[in-house]
Specification:
This protein is α+β, with helices and mostly antiparallel strands. The protein is 20% helix and 29% strand.
């Protein structure tokens, strides 16, 4: 005679219950099996894991990831800038948009660079949280930078002596070839200097020499630490798309 099975039912092993049927009159009895399946909820940890992975694949999560990546790229790698004035005509026209490379950039002669106003005011003390929120706002384009940015061409490098005479720029006594200038712009290479560029600064000028507030007039030398990066391509409008030498 078989031992009765008294193990408790689990989700892996269904419980089987036999119910005898009434006598059918022919002396036999029929037994039917009624199967009851007991289900068990997954462990709490497993449920949380499923919810977590469901969120990872959701649209809001993908938006947050895209936003974080965009902020990191803008902060450390490449950033788009709008050209607000004609000071760099004809190289850059008012309304153009350029991409600026920022990672580990070292200024070179005749590079077109974006830099923070060297004569700007000191930023307000927002505290750690306020400063982070302002940085985040700048990253997503809803907050203005502390100081305005300028875009000019690097002419004089640290330690060099620069002079303008006879409508020509001289660096350490040698004339500088400037093929990007129009004949009209060259007429505005008015006498200047000589001046020596500080060891930690740059001398910059706009390509539109007749209409550019640069190191000759008011802007002064630009500290290297104020340089944001080098503009390397025009991305808008489509008619002006192209690289910058």
């Amino acid at each position: 005679m078989a031992e009765p099975d008294d193990r408790p039912p689990t989700s892996e092993r269904p419980a089987v219950t036999e119910h005898p049927q009434p006598d059918t009159g022919d002396g036999s009895h029929q037994a039917t099996k009624e199967t009851t399946v007991h289900t068990m909820d997954p462990p709490t940890g497993e449920t949380q894991d499923r919810k977590r992975w469901r969120f990872v694949g959701s649209f809001p999560f993908l938006v947050l990831v895209a936003l974080a990546v965009a902020i990191l790229i803008k902060t450390f790698l490449v950033q788009a800038f709008y050209i607000p004035s004609p000071s760099m005509d004809p190289t850059l026209q008012q309304g153009d948009r350029v991409l600026v490379y920022k990672l580990a950039y070292h200024p070179g002669r005749q590079d077109v660079v974006v830099f923070v106003n060297p004569n700007g005011s000191a930023p307000p003390d927002r505290g750690p949280i306020g400063g982070f929120l302002h940085w985040l706002g700048e990253g997503i384009g809803v907050a203005q930078p502390e100081d305005e940015d300028f875009i000019k061409r690097v002419i004089g490098l640290p330690g060099e002596t620069l002079e303008i005479r006879d409508r020509t720029v001289f660096i350490d006594g040698e004339p500088l070839a400037e093929p990007y200038l129009t004949p009209g712009a060259k007429t505005c290479n008015r006498p200047f200097g000589p001046v020596t560029v500080p060891d930690d600064a740059l001398f910059v000028m706009g390509d539109n020499r007749c209409n550019s507030a640069d190191s000759r007039y008011g802007l002064g030398f630009v500290p290297v630490e104020k340089v944001v990066g080098r503009a390397f391509v025009i991305i808008w409008p489509p008619s002006n798309v192209g690289g910058l030498g």
